Amino acid sequence: MRTSRTGGEEGGGGSPPPSSRSTSSFDIWRTLALLTGAVLVVVAGYLGFNRTDVPASGQALQAPAGAPVDDRPDLDRLIGVYEDKTTTSRDPLDHRTMGRLYLARADLTGDIASFEMARQAFSEARSLYSEDVEALSLEARAAFSLHDFADASTLIDQWIELDPDSIDAIALKGDVSLALGDISAAEATYDDVFAVAPAHPAVQARLAQLAVAKGDMTAALSRATIAESTARETGFTGRPLAWYQSFLGQLAFDTGDYGRSESMFSSALANSPT
Asked: What residue ranges do the domains of the chain occupy?
């Protein structure tokens, strides 16, 4: 597991915690870095959730399904198979699968080119079937990961037009607003998401990121703590759980709670050693 997924910048030991600093370009860029780390997880299916995943009151959340291939040799083999297949295939499913494999490689390696290749594969899938909502949603996430926020916003609007009830689309729209520094728009959108799935760890993590952007590190830590504990208590394991632990660990580090930070990073490493 790469701790860079948490996206935080490590300051010197003498730096004051973010809660004691005024909002600055450093804080804004740190927030964008945190968002980038989150997106790497979103596109892999770790933070994504569908309306069918939203539990009724009192029911346990389920860990997201469809985690990417962790075995790099097997992933490379599958990519080779589908690269050959998609040279002649006119089946949108083949191109969508190709894109998913590129996203899995991007998640494992951080390779920017793989995000771009994924975006192109999803675009090709949509050219073959214009109402392929899944390909559209994944293309939007890939565009966001590449910080192409204008394209991501356009794709999200198309996604919402095709699937107006998609909580994923609404959440990603809020992510774009936050990445562009429109905190008010992000907050309004996240409020809509919270109304649908208040207990979901992905929602709490987004609210934590919003709190960071607003300079409220106490609220950020509280939300991140809820996200990590809920993920752990409701069945998240491996890399999905490790992401929440790394996220909380980075926020603890940023606020000077080094003992808690070390504990969270150790737990994350135990859950996802690679």
From this structure: 3-271
The hierarchical CATH code for the domain 3-271 is 1.25.40.10
The ranges of the chain with pLDDT < 70 are 1-71
Looking at 50-200, list the stretches that DSSP marks H as alpha helix, in order from N- to C-terminal side. Answer: 72-85, 92-109, 112-128, 133-145, 149-162, 167-179, 183-196
Check: CB of residue 95 under 8 Å from CB of residue 126. Answer: no
Q: Which residue has the tokens 């109304």?
A: 195
Q: State the average pLDDT for the chain.
A: 80
Contact (Cβ atoms closer than 8 angstroms) between residue 202 and residue 49? yes
The helix/strand/coil state of 52 is helix
Helix axes 92-109, 25-43, angle to 10 degrees: 130
Residue with tokens 């993590």: 205
Cα–Cα dist 157/261, whole Å = 38
pTM of structure: 0.73
pLDDT in tens, 192-234: 999 999 999 999 999 999 999 999 999 999 999 999 999 999 9
Task: List % helix, strand, coil for the chain (3-state, nearest 5).
Answer: 70, 0, 30
